[in-house]
Write a structure and sequence with these properties.
The protein is about 35% helix and about 15% strand. By secondary structure, it is an alpha/beta fold. Helix 4 runs parallel beside helix 5 (about 115-125) and helix 8 packs parallel to helix 9.
Length: about 350
């Protein structure tokens, strides 16, 4: 994907367009335009509510026809909806992109390559459909083997209070900060957006439950053979009514040495469910207990997403979380990742 047009029709907001935001933040040089008729004429950053944030200078256009002058080579599905289904209204746009010779990259659970209409159109046009969430055959049926990580490697896993609180972002930011400091570091993606950003990883939430821990183990063992610091992207939450099984499989498959707890300031309930999020001190105990069933791993810092707060309120939220947990707390996007990496290094 060298020149990406991002399809986010009617969904260009930080929650629904998580995949689009990830690409705009971490692969901005590849994003040529965003498709969303409801924001056509603005740029992506303004549409997302932060004019200086991800997508600054990336135009928003109305449809595939309007994006073609920007010469994209790939149409990327920019949303990660609950259930991962293709919106019916988007089918015509995808067919138009295929007819124009664009490859299709999709992180949906609905595999576009298995859709008879879309697959047939792609074959006729000679373009590729990349279903990012399709597990690699070599790992899809792998059972966890209790393999040891390379001595000298440090595995860090990112656990959250909910989905969409910033686990992937914190992992990528820490990987970048570690590299800036000259450390040997790798970002091990476990979700569709992370894979699109990094170019490798596994789609954890598409594995059969019996094989998730094995697939994650293989990913982490491979990364640990190449890097001293391995930042393993987290998914879901142990208290999430729908996704807790993915969270636990990831935790045990990664067998981390250290954990970072991720939370969005002000979020009191699991998004979309009437389930209260416990105090951070309670969530910390839950994750440390679950990790210790196989291998002890302490939470050494908290990454707090303060995007909905003004600066003064954000600093108060960071201080409150630090007092509650007794741990270093930082918002890596807003105020820098240094305190989180310092906390990790202090435990080695």
């Amino acid at each position: 994907m060298r020149r990406i047009a991002i399809l986010a029709e009617g969904k260009l907001n930080p929650q629904d367009a998580k995949t689009a935001v990830g690409i705009l933040r971490y692969r901005p040089e590849a994003a040529v335009a965003v498709i969303d008729s409801t924001h056509a004429g603005s740029d992506a950053a303004a549409a997302l509510g932060d004019p200086s944030g991800p997508g600054a200078g990336v135009p928003v256009v109305s449809d595939v026809a309007a994006v073609l002058p920007y010469q994209p080579d790939t149409l990327l599905i920019g949303i990660a909806p609950i259930g991962g289904r293709l919106p019916d209204a988007w089918r015509a746009q995808i067919l138009a992109a295929i007819a124009a010779g664009l490859d299709i990259a999709s992180g949906l659970h609905h595999f576009l390559g298995d859709d008879p209409e879309l697959a047939s159109a792609a074959e006729r046009a000679g373009v590729r459909i990349w279903d990012v969430r399709r597990p690699d055959d070599a790992l899809a049926l792998r059972i966890r083997e209790d393999q040891a990580h390379r001595p000298g490697s440090h595995i860090v896993h990112f656990c959250g209070t909910d989905c969409n609180v910033g686990k992937m972002t914190v992992a990528v930011e820490l990987d970048r900060e570690a590299r800036r400091r000259g450390l040997s570091s790798g970002f091990a993606a476990t979700g569709q957006t992370g894979i699109m950003i990094s170019g490798e990883g596994i789609p954890a939430d598409r594995f059969i439950s019996d094989f998730l821990a094995g697939g994650v183990e293989a990913l982490v063992v491979d990364f640990a053979s190449r890097y001293d610091w391995v930042f393993v992207e987290g998914q879901g939450s142990l208290i999430h009514p729908a996704y807790s099984a993915v969270t636990l499989g990831l935790l045990h498959g990664a067998a981390p040495d250290l954990l970072i707890l991720c939370h969005e300031a002000g979020r009191a309930h699991i998004r979309g469910y009437d389930v209260a999020i416990p105090a951070l001190s309670v969530v910390r105990q839950m994750y440390e207990t679950a990790a210790a069933w196989l291998k002890p791993a302490p939470i050494v810092a908290v990454a707090l997403n303060t995007r909905l707060l003004n600066e003064a309120s954000a600093h108060r939220a960071l201080a409150d979380a630090a007092r509650e947990t007794g741990l270093p707390v930082a918002d890596p996007v807003r105020f820098g990742t240094g305190p989180l990496l310092d906390a990790l290094l202090a435990h080695t």
